[in-house]
Structure formats: C-alpha cells, structure tokens
Amino acid sequence: MASASTPAYNSNNLENNSSKNASRESLRMEPLVDVPQLPGEERITDKDIIYICPFNGAVKGKVSITNYRLFFKSFEVDPAMTLDVPLGVISRIEKMGGASSRGENSYGLDITCKDMRNLRFALKQEGHSRRDIFELLFRYAFPLSHSLVSPFGLPNNKWRITFVNEQYELCDTYPTVLMVPFKATDEDLRKVSAFRSRNRIPVVSWIHPVNQAVIMRCSQPLVGMSGKRNKDDERYLDTIREANGQTAKLTIYDARPNVNAVANKATGGGYEGEDAYQNAELVFLDIHNIHVMRESLKKLKDIVYPQVEETHWLSSLESTHWLEHIKLVLAGAIQVADKLSSGNSVVVHCSDGWDRTAQLTSLSMLMLDSYYRTMTGFQVLVQKEWISFGHKFSSRIGHGDKNHADADRSPIFVQFIDCVWQMTKQFPTAFEFNELFLMTILDNLYSCRFGTFLYNCESVRDSMEVKEKTVSLWSMINSENGKYINPFYTKESSRVLYPVASMRHLELWVSYYIRWNPRIRQQQQNPVEQRYMEMLALRDQYLKKLEELQISDSPHIANNSNSPASPTQLVHHVQTPL
Amino acid sequence: MLSLGSGGGKSTKPSFVSYVTLEDMKIKEKEEGLRSKHPYLLPGEVVFCSANHVLKYTQEDASQRGVYGTLLCTNFKIAFISGESASQETAPPFRNKLLSENDIPLTCVDHIYGVSDEKKKLIIGGQVKSKYPSKLIIQCKDLRVFHFSLTYAKEEEAKKIFQGIVHHSLEPKSLKCVFAFSYCETASPSQASRKSSLTLMFETKEDWSMELGRTKGNCKVSSANEDYAISEKLPQFFVVPFAVSDDDILRFLGKGIPFWCWSHHSGCALFKMACLPTIQEDGISQKYMHRMLDAVTQDQLCPVKIEDLSSCLPALQDLQLSYNKFKQLFLIDSTTEFWVSDMKWFSSLENSGWLEIIRQCLMKAVEIVDYLESAHTSVLIVEEHCSDLCCVLSSLVQIMLDPYYRTRSGFQSLIQKEWVAGGHSFLDRCNHLYQKEKEAPAPVFLLFLECVWQLLQQHAPAFQFSETYLTVLSDSINIPLFSTFLFNSQHHRDTAMKPGHPEAQRSPLNFPSVWDWSLQFDCKAQSLFTNPLYVEKPIQDKALRKTSHQKHQRQLSLPNTLSKPSPRKGFFKEETDNLKKIFLGKRISKWLNPTESSKELYESWQRKPLDYQGLLLPYLDGPAVRVWMQRYLRWVPEAQIFGGGSITTVNRVLELASEIQDLQKEVERRSCRMNSSIEWKQVYSGPPLSARLSSFPFTTTHAWSFKPAIPSSIRQGLGSVSSLADKEDDDSQGSGVL
Lengths: 578, 738
Known about the structure:
The structure holds two protein chains of two kinds. By secondary structure, chain A is α+β, with helices and mostly antiparallel strands. Chain A has 22 helices and 14 strands. In chain A, the strands form three sheets. Chain A has a seven-stranded antiparallel sheet with strand order 4-3-2-1-7-6-5. In chain A, strands 10-11-14-12-13 form a five-stranded mixed sheet. Chain A has a two-stranded antiparallel ribbon with strand order 8-9. In chain A, helix 10 crosses helix 14 (412-426) and helix 11 (356-368) runs antiparallel to helix 12 (375-388). The relative contact order of chain A is 0.08. Chain B has an eight-stranded antiparallel sheet, with helices on one face. The N and C termini of chain B lie far apart (78 Å). Residues 1-23, 29-36, 540-594 and 731-738 of chain B have low confidence and may be disordered. At the A-B interface, helix 7, helix 8, helix 9, helix 10 and helix 20 of A face helix 10, helix 11 and helix 24 of B.
C-alpha cells in the first residue's frame, strides 16, 4: 500500500484491491492539495509529521486522518509523496520511544498494516501530538472496541472499561472489552456471571449523553424452578441503578412473553423476581422466539413467491403475522428509547441475550442516537450490538451448513433490518443510507463473501483468524458508498425518532421480499427519488451555467452592485453537500 | 347551572370526569366575561343558537381533558369557540378561510352520537325529545371526530343547542335552506364571480368546441338541448357523432345517445350512453341502437366496444355499504380503540372491500384504455343514467391517456366535463338535504378521487397537483357553498339560481365554483396544491423559459405516426409496427379474455422507460393499492409520525425546487438582462421539519410534549400461535456455543 506517487512504489505487486483504489484516488486528487474524500467521509484531524520511509528516509509532511483513511502528503512537491491508507487496513498501532529516548524523532508511531507493511512516523514532543494521533487512530481504526468509549468520554467516575474478558475467560460469547459500573470490581463481575445464562452479564450498550441513563444488555438470570437468588446479581443491578442518580427504579425489559419467561424456569432460567429485585420493575415485551419468527417468514414466502397472492392479499398478509412481529419488536424498542429519554436506566434481556436483545438495544440506539443513522454509525452499530456481542450468525443463517431444517436457524437479523427499513420509511430524511444499503447487507449476510457475518461470536472469529483471512463487508460498502447514500438525508444531531408501531404505518418491504417478481420489481423504482436526483442534476446545470456567465460577465457584474445576492454567495449557498 | 348531568355525577369512568373544578369554572367565567367572543361569521350567516360552558375534549390527550367554550349552531356550521383557542397569530398557516379549526359545516356532519348514562346512542333526526345527552360525539364526513360535554352548560342552553344541531344537520331540509343561498344573496358579487380562467366550465358551445379541437375529435357540438328544450338532465351543449341528428336526441329524450367524451389520436374515441327505457319494443330499440352504433363507428370505419358497467362493477348501494365500513376504521374514539383495531387492521381493510372496489374501477379503466390505445377501438360506456360509475371510468381513462388532465386546470376541466356537465347527481349522492326517500347516497365522486390518488402516489411526477389538493377537494364536497357540488344537473342549478319570486327584482344568484380556490385558501396555502415533483412537458425553448398560457396539445402516448415523435423517450417506428401487428393479430382472442389483453398492454408499457407525459397505468397488485393516508389518518393522533412521514421528502424537494428557481432567476437575469417572463411560484415554508407531524399540513403541532405511542393490548392478535411459541430459542442447550 505504499502508494507514493513515485513509479517505483506503484509497481509493487503486493498491492491489493484497496491499495489500487487508493492509488487511483491519490492520482485523481493530485491537483488538489486537500485530502481525497469519499461521500460521508469526515476529516478528523491534521498533524505535521515525519514519515520514516524505509527507502528514502525521513520525509516531512502532513498527515490527515478521516473516519475512513490515513492520508499523508509530503511538504516537498518534487517529488511529492503520498500515502493513502484506509483505516480498515490497520491491524495494530504501537508507540515507540518517548521522553527517555534521544534524538529529534524520538516520539514514534509504528503502524502495522494487514497488507505486509509497517508505516513509521515520528512526531514532535510538544503539545502531546503523538498521544492525540495515537488515540484518534486507535478509535477510528478499531471502532469495534472503541465505539463504546468514544462518545461518552469514558472512563468516568460511574462507568469503567474492563478487560476481564480479554481472553474470553468470563464469557466466551462476549467481546473482550466491556463497559461496566465503576463500582463493580472484576471479582464482582465473575460472581454475577455465574448467575446469568451463558455468563452474559449486564454490560453497557449505550449511555445517554445528557441524562447519563444507560442501556444494559444481558441474558436471563438463572433462577430455575426453585427460585434461586444471587446477592451479587441483585447488588450489581442496584449498582447500575445508582450509577444514574435519577433512577428510582431500574426498568428491566424482558423481551419475551410472560408465559415463556415463566416456562424458562423449568430449564434453569427465568426472570428477575419482584422480591429479589426490589428496586427494579420488570416489563415483558411479548416478542416471540426464533421459531415463531422463522415460521412467520416462511408463510410470508408462501404468499409472495412465485406469485403474489391476489384476491385476499391483505388478510393473507395478516395471517403471516410477519408485520405484527415487526410491530412488537419496534414497540419494544420504542419503550426502551422512551425510558432512556426520560432519564431512566434500563436492562434488556431475553433468554440468552443474543437475538431479541440485540434487536431491542440496536433499534433503541438507532432511535436515540443520530450517529447510528449515518453510514459509519450503522456499521458500528451492527458490528457492536450484533457481531461482537455474539448474535449467532453462523447458527441463525447456517453458513455452509447442509442442514436446512436446523431449528437454530431464524431470520432474526433480517427482521432487524426490516425494522430499520420501516424506520427509514417513516423518517425518509433521517438516515444517511438508503434501501440498497440495507439490501446489500442482507445479501451479504448470506453470501459468505466477507468475513463480517461469519461465525457465532468473537472468540471463534479470533481463533479462526477471520480478521486476517477475510475482507469486511464494510470496506466494500465504504469503497463505493455513493451508491448507498440517501439523497434526502438531512443531518439532525439531537433528534430522537419515535416511529409509529402501528399496522397503519407498517408496510411489507416489497422491494426486498418480492424482488424476484419482475412485475413487482418494475414498480419499485422510487419515482420521488429519481425525480429528486434529476432536480439535483438540473441544479448543477444551472450552477455551471451561472459560473460560465460569471466568467464571461465579470466586468458587468462589478457594475451591478445592487444584485440581490452576490454570485459567490449564491454559489456558496447552494453547494450543500449531498 | 352547575348541576352535573346524570352521567357526570355518579360516573367513575374517566370519560366523564373533567379536570376543571368548580372553582376553575368561576375563574373561567370571569375571563370569558372580559373577553367577548364573537364567532367569525360569513356574509349571510346567522347564529341559530348557542350554549356556553361546553367542554370540548382535546383529542390529542388521552387523559380526557378539555377546553371550555361556546358551542354555536348557525345556518352554515356548528362552531366551537373558546377563550383558549388559537388567536389569529398562532393560527396554522394552512387554514381554510371559510372555516376555523373547530367548525363543522352542517353538511359535513356524518353521524351524531349522544352519550347518557355511559351509553352511546346514535341520534336520529326527527326523534329528538326534550331530554339531551350529557355528551355529544360528532363524526364528520371529513373524518374528524368531536367530543363535547354538555354537562356544565345551562340546562336551557344545552337543550337548545342539542336540538338545534340535530335539527339543522340531521333532518331533511329544502335546497333553499342550503347556506350557499343566503351567502350569495349577501356576499358582494365580486367575491363570488371570479373564475379560474384556465378551467373550462363546459357551459358554452365554445368550451366544447375547444375540447373537440384539442383532441382532434371527429364529432360535432350539438345545441339541440339549448335552454333545456329536450332534457333537464342533459347539459345545454354536448358533443355527439356527426350522424346523430337532433331528432335522434329528441326520440328518447337523450337516452341511448352516444355522448362523446374524448378522442384518441388514432381516431377512435370514448363515448358514454344512458340505457334506453325498457318499455320500448325490442324491434324499435334494436334498430335505434344499431343506428347509434353506426354513428359511433362512422359506418364501420372504426370498431367499437360496448362496456356495460352494470354487469361488471358494484352497484351504488354496495359502494355506500363498503365505504361506510371502511370509514369506520378511521373514526376512532380512544387510544385503546386505536390499538385494539390495529390488531386486525389488514383484515378489516379487506373486509370493508373499499380497496377492492378501487382496484376494480382502475382495472376496468385499464381495459378501456387498452381498447383505445392498443386496438384503436372506440369504447362506448353504458350505464343506466350514465352519470355515476360512468363518470368515474371515463374520467380515469382520460387521466391515464392524456397528460393534460394531470395538470390542475386540466383536471378541473375534466371534472367540469364529465361530472358537472355530465349530470352527476352531486346533491343526491352526497345527500346534503338529508332526504331519506331519495335515491341512495353513494360516494361516487370520492371513489373517483381515491382512484386518482392511487395513480398519484404511484406516479407522483406525472401530476401537477398534490395529494393535499385532492384531500382538500374531497373536503370541499361537504362545504355547502360551491355550485360544483350542490346540484343534480346544470338545469337544476340554473333553475335554483333564478330569483325565487318574480317580483324580487334582482339578477340571478352567482354561486362560487369550487375552483375559485382563493375563496378557501390564500396564495401561500394554495402553493401546497402544486406537486413539486411534477415533470413539466419538455420545453422547446433552450433558454428554459416557460411560455405562459401555452395550450395543452395532446401528447402522443404510444406514437404510431411519425408526425410528432416524442422527443425523449418513445417507441421506434419498427417497434410500433411490430406491436400493432401483434395487437391486430390477437384482437379477437383478447376480447374473449380481457385481463390477458391488459397484461400485454402492461408488458409493452413497461418495456420502455416511463414517460410521465405519456400513457400512465396503475399498478394493481395487492401491495400496490393503498390507503389514502393523508385523508384518512390525518386526524388520528396515534397515527401521527412526529417529524416524519412522506411529507419530509416532499419538503426536501420543495427546498431544492426553490433553490433551482433562485438559480434560474439568476441565470435569466444575467443572460437576458431584461425582465424575465418566468412566473415565480411562491414556495411554502412551514415550520421546521422536526416540529411537524406526518399529517402536515392538516394538523399542526401543539405545545404538548411529544410522547411516543406505545401499542397496548398487543398480545391478542397472536393468540393462535403454534406450539413453537413455547419452545426454547436454542433447543440444544449448551451445544449452541462452541
């Protein structure tokens, strides 16, 4: 990826796809001094830096970090040297040297890339510039482990990061980095884990930036038939409640129907009893299990493929219950989001906390936090709530598995994406990504082309070296993200979205579920969006025309001082990024 | 006077508990004394009765709270005025000038329920006794629902207002009592006589000639019925084939005459006809019909297909029944009711059958389009009086085939042509006079608007007008002011507008037309009638200048002549010829199986890129036919999406459109350096996106903090879930992971 513009480096035959892109990118952008930017890419920081080129020695220049790439350009113009590294390529970042070392370039950074390279930089000691750049790179190159941390300014005096699961010794289906109450020691966590199904202890998914209320996720408590209690678990939940001073009662959302929660006692599970958890209120959200969802989607298929049910379309649709399940999931997420907004911390669980729980936490986060409605934010959301918290993609999808009737299979993730689609329909300007983006995710959920959805949890992915051996779906999407941008997107940072979880507003996602029907496919081209794009093109035409007129007319304009808006203002005004 | 009504006193149900205490009442009284409340009255409007201290429950609020005020009944409306109601400056920008938020035109009242002793009872006109209910629920034809409590009003006033409302809105009355008459006698004529110059009214010979010329129709304008000499049902002027003589028209008083509607560019045309009276001997009527058909076919030159609507579309009573069921789904009393009905939403929709009727109408229209467009066969639509479903179908066919009718003025002209001049009995069908013995009321015109809405939501860029326009038009049917919707025929209107008594020396009344939109809405509000997505006809002028008042020439939808090839997207000559061969070859078999033929039409239509100025066909698959959300859900608070809905994209389009307009203006200014001839449309700027409800512009946000709607009673619907529901998520305990 040493895509310096000198031909010698370009002939490097170790270049992979992304580096080809990058070098093309850098060539194209050559006339501009600025950093190349993809749509949706945002500049994070710029720093003067020295690149220790293994071939040419130290090169002074400027490094720019965006949420997508690291871009270096030498001050020297002849020959200019650039580096363009998507952050996804970075596998490891280390600090080298420091105050004790001697020499001018003593504060060093060593970046190990996945494409057989190391990039070394040196920074000045002043102004903690190395620390800043190290932290930024770390945060953006590894959003998975750090999305937890970055928005909330952690650790603080209420919540802390723990590495107790670094080797998956606490819980083998959780990620290595967890956020927990500050007051709970690692020993406490271990004790709690004994009382939670599959050791999935309550950990933080999201902190409300203003009122500090949290969404915690976990699995069911192991109450069992005898109604076991666990003091550590009870104290732990109370710690959570206390961490957010305003919460008098901690709300526990059990995603299951009440009867199912009771039935779970027979197999050692259960729910938080009133007696044991006096400072908590328990709400059942009535969402059915994976088997019900699987059958529901099967029924849906029966009425849309190969022919769309004609005469009794609406009642047939109703009898599949698919939209009703969507409604229940959305309704549950709305309740979680509403609770959070009013300053109360919540705990969400189902049985194991990897299906319905993931749906609820991620959907409520999507409602609460506009970051997750951006292209990158949504990737982080899926990566975090689904992939790293162990939604069993492999079992649910059955990647490469011949057993098509496996009872472990279920379209839980499809259902989640459907819920997201319903939200985009109700709030057509609130999401940065479009329908194609969601469909691409679903297509690649099955495609096995990318490592993103392979295996059931992080520990397996680590042992199978998924990160080393596969490409991420997100790199593919981000490399051509123009296709996935919603032209109507309007950034609104602090808005909470409450979709209406009523059948009156829920629709069947026709362009996904019935896309194989050519007649239906034809109908699904969105005329509004098409027209909008045409209008955008028309606007650009006018802008161009205006520019031309401006050039040819410039003396004339000088006289015309009473024009309503000066041309530059006008041009500036209309160039809103789209 | 503060005696609680029978229901209010002992009831423990929240629906009868007011949050206002007696102390509050006294304070309120003082305030009311200070602020004299005058109802806003139109010219000619008279207050019949009124009652103070009426409580109007605020619908947005589930807690059964309300606002105190005065309930009035005038000769035009039922009005509620409260001291707390919005003053002029906080009034919503999209406001009807004739009506305020809490006004219900008498003709807009659909049903009134009285609640006494917690029992909800339908009030029927003419059966009202001196007893009055403690609570009044008024359901409106535009689907608003008002809840008033009479518990705190003075007994005398309460009785009077109750009887007044029931009498004036639920009991039969004569046409002269309709408000339009007193309005027009009083209003300054200048106010009422303005006409939309672009809309053809089809009251004169010239209008018909113009329409005939525009479509190059091969027929003649007949003035046989001038001064209604032959029939009171027919307009004074109409168009018939050349071969139809005045005697033919006289023979059965206009029945059995093929009236021309529209001509296709291929030369074939659309006609409609009323059935012959059945008493005629078979031989006579057969011979007569034969002659008429010959007239249509121009002596066998052009084939004709007869569509008898009575055999293929639902009867008017079915229409009414179905719509009554359908509309009930939106008249929701409480949040609980909303969520309970949500469970069975899709099957209730299906049971009403309303969407299916819409689908059938559109399907029939497509069949007719198919004959005209693919087979170049004239179509003669036959219906008993040719003034009900006949109007629906002929109008739909023309909208699908002719882009002119998708412009606002074209659409209005179409309604004038097919409905007003076509003699649709608006008065009887809407039953504004509440006459029971009359023919069954039926929402025929609404059905037409519904079908148009389906087309509009499927092909938004093809229409110059917006969804809001259609909704407002559907509301205007129930405002008893417009000549458009008040009469059964043009003759009916003309006689009604004549001075009542010969001695009253004054000119005939001049009722406003509904197309005089400035009567209802100011310019700013009217800007919401324009669809920002509309793709105008390609403009020849390179300077992108719009020539004003350009006559709409009919665009060739499936051009088969080389005279006027569509400039952008069109058929190649060979392709067309090929198609023609296919159509000709299969014509006979197609007629045996009409749905199959439409399929071919769809296929050929879908094969080319969609031209919004060309042929437009509706999608009719189950998922494609939808509920007109804006019209039906706008008043249901539970269904509002806060800061969302399709209105948000429309808003973005509007912003972009105004930006383009600014640029256009600037380019114009610089390149021409002279006054531009572009008409600047006023662009509507409403409240910020985030403060809007999805029902914009019909309901505006209130000060209340928004709480998300959380479905209640969600379990019932899934009652019959299989045994799977009891299973564990992961059967293989412990083996799932690693």
